[in-house]
Design goal:
The structure holds two protein chains of two kinds. By secondary structure, chain A is an all-alpha fold. Chain B is built from 16 helices and eleven strands. In chain B, the strands form two sheets. In chain B, strands 4, 5, 6, 7, 8, 10 and 11 form a seven-stranded mixed sheet that branches. Classes of the chains: A mainly alpha, B alpha/beta. The interface between A and B is large, with 56 and 50 residues.
């Protein structure tokens, strides 16, 4: 059983193609963003990223991600668990509902919230009477982001959980573990990588979401502008260097997420190898 | 079983730090969020000028696209003026976007203390929802428009296609950039300026005017959604031979992006654009910000305000200031929308409403 079934030329051609593609569509744009950001030197860059409006946008973006990602982790875990491990009526409906945010355009998602919570919307008069603000304020931005990023965790987890089947859980239950014990000791550890990828995708989208947030934000500078909206504003003001500088912040946030993921991956692996080599092998097999 | 526990438990204890880190980031972020949120309500009951010394107040100015630079400047000057006059610190927050879209946001609950939009029709729309009285335009001088502007042509340096007047725009092979009149206030002015020119040329023949504008739209390769987007298309992406733009937008493009690349062509006739301003009564009453909001708009009519308008290439209403800037604002024969189209409401209904003239003559 050799895997060298293809001629050398073909293999190199394919690898080369993949690299060229990666370079053109990922590396070159990334380099372009950074080089534009530093075009007028580090001072201009620092000035752009330390502008109070930019800092406010960074804070708002982090806050939004910090609320919507944990929410979606809880929702996603619960939904995926229910769908993968139990059979019940309306399962397909639930699956379709989970996919809904992927199916509708983000702009429409934003508009839904305006229609619900805007002054002329369904709950508008009631909210106004109680002096509550959702649209054109932080809650609206969080809501829209949570809605748009809803499918990521669940969608990552469902196939993993389904592939694993119910055997281990059933074994645990028959040995006397209660529901929570089974969940925390069997289910969760089994899906940890799926969960992590889901969290990372969810987080990346939460920080980068433009369409839905744009509709509900109201674009108040230094108040309801997230980083992607702020980049657009700067670009439209002919502040190209500042726009790219803020774009590098957004890219940096994404890179930090990736680094965190790699570190956890590496540490967990090392721990498992050092601690229980035999078990590790067993875990791989299962 | 014991071993399983030992190995597997660390997983979620490891996930915990990330979750913690996120929620910490959230905590670090949230005071900022809270602050800004409560900022809107900062003006306390009885936040009148008398009690104002040392206190602070916040205004939200919801404006259209090309005024960013103008209001950045105005806000700084007004804050100083207000501080010396009352001792109160005023912070003015800005929101910019297409005029029609901004108007819709205010209707949907964006709590603007003042609106400074591209055309009266968009403020009329807000008035229809009862946020300010229907006769708002009579509350300030000059139709509530402290500055005016007009539509001019921006061409590439040396004017290689020899574009001198409106007639040159409909020639074959000329590519014209203008935004979409459905979404952009500026684009509606562009469209009506062209229509008005053709009417004038053909002694009021509406059919000829429609033919002219149809021919013009045929030369438009892409309709951007806002004035600023159209400028970027023309200037940054190098598409088109001529950009129909606000006079101030054309000057800004030249100043920001190179005097050696573009030049302005003044057509023989154009439209007098009157971008109006208004206090949104419902919101200032809620925020207790009426005195400062009214003073803010009055400030635009003051000598200082007029100078700032002229500095950012808006035509000042004050004759005195206008004379001082004669070079930037050459005499162009200007007609108003009331003279030629019988007001915004009518023009909107005939030309830009669904199924209106624009929909009939424009095929993408």
């Amino acid at each position: 059983m050799t895997n060298q079934t293809e001629p050398v030329v073909v293999r190199w051609l394919l690898i080369g193609l993949a690299l060229v593609f990666l370079g053109l569509f990922l590396i070159v744009p990334l380099i372009a963003v950074f080089s534009q950001a530093f075009r007028q030197g580090v001072d201009v860059f620092l000035q752009a990223v330390s502008d109070p409006n930019t800092l406010a946008a960074v804070k708002l973006t982090l806050l939004t991600a910090a609320i919507s990602v944990p929410l979606n982790v809880v929702f996603g875990l619960a939904a995926a668990w229910a769908i993968a491990k139990f059979s019940f009526r309306g399962k397909n409906v639930l699956l379709t509902l989970i996919d809904l945010p992927f199916a509708v355009s983000p702009v429409i998602s934003g508009l839904i919230f305006v229609l619900l919570f805007g002054s002329q919307g369904l709950f508008g008069p009631w909210l106004e009477a109680h002096n509550l603000k959702i649209i054109f304020a932080v809650p609206g931005i969080v809501l829209a982001t949570t809605f748009v990023t809803f499918p990521f965790v669940a969608r990552e987890l469902i196939p993993v959980m389904e592939a694993q089947g119910k055997d281990e859980e059933e074994a645990a239950l028959s040995l006397g573990a209660n529901g929570w014990q089974t969940f925390f000791r069997i289910t969760l550890p089994n899906v940890k990588w799926g969960l992590l990828y889901g969290v990372i995708l969810c987080n990346a989208r939460a920080m980068g979401e433009f369409g839905a947030v744009s509709v509900v934000s109201g674009h108040i500078r230094g108040q309801t502008n997230t980083l992607p909206l702020h980049v657009e504003i700067l670009y439209n003001e002919y502040n190209f260097v500042a726009a790219f500088a803020v774009a590098t912040l957004l890219a940096a946030l994404a890179l930090v997420t990736l680094v965190v993921k790699s570190v956890i991956e590496w540490k967990t692996e090392r721990h498992e190898q050092a601690g229980e080599p035999q078990f590790h092998a067993m875990g791989e097999a299962s | 079983m014991e071993r399983t526990k030992h190995v597997r438990q660390p997983f979620y204890t490891k996930l915990l730090p990330i979750v913690l880190a996120f929620s910490l980031a959230g905590c670090a972020g949230s005071p900022g969020g809270q602050q800004t949120q409560s900022g809107g309500e900062q003006a306390k009951p009885g936040g009148e000028q008398a009690a104002a010394a040392g206190s602070s107040v916040e205004l939200l100015n919801v404006s259209y696209d090309p005024t960013r630079e103008l209001y950045q400047d105005v806000n700084e000057h007004f804050a100083q003026y207000w501080k010396t006059k009352t001792g109160q610190t005023v912070t003015i927050k800005q929101s910019h976007g297409g005029s029609g879209k901004q108007s819709r946001s205010v209707i949907d609950g964006l709590e603007a203390d003042v609106v400074t939009l591209a055309l009266a029709y968009d403020i009329d729309a807000i008035a229809q929802y009862g946020l300010l009285p229907a006769d708002w335009q009579k509350r300030l001088p000059d139709n509530s428009s402290p500055y005016t502007s007009t539509i001019v042509f921006l061409v590439r340096k040396g004017n290689p296609k020899q574009i001198k007047d409106w007639d040159d725009l409909v020639k074959p092979g000329i590519s014209v950039i203008t935004p979409n009149p459905k979404t952009s206030g500026g684009a509606r002015w562009n469209y009506l300026a062209a229509w008005g020119y053709a009417l004038k040329k053909h002694n009021g023949d509406e059919k000829k005017a429609q033919e002219f504008v149809t021919a013009l739209l045929k030369n438009v390769p892409v309709l951007d959604s806002g004035a600023r987007g159209a400028t970027t298309t023309f200037v940054e992406r190098g598409i088109g031979d001529v950009l129909l733009a606000w006079e101030n937008e054309a000057y800004l493009a030249i100043n920001e992006l190179g005097k050696d690349k573009f030049e302005i062509v003044n057509p023989s006739v154009s439209i007098l654009a009157e971008p109006p301003v208004a206090v949104v009564d419902k919101n200032v009453d809620k925020h207790n910000t009426r005195p400062v909001a009214e003073a803010y708009l009055q400030f635009l009519y003051s000598k200082e305000g007029q100078e700032l308008a002229a500095k950012h290439y808006y035509r000042p209403r004050s004759e005195e200031v206008r004379k001082a800037h004669q070079a930037e604002f050459p005499d162009i024969e200007l007609f108003t929308i009331d003279e030629v189209f019988g007001g915004w409401e009518k023009a909107q209904k005939i030309h830009f409403a669904d199924g209106g003239v624009f929909d009939q003559i424009y095929q993408p």
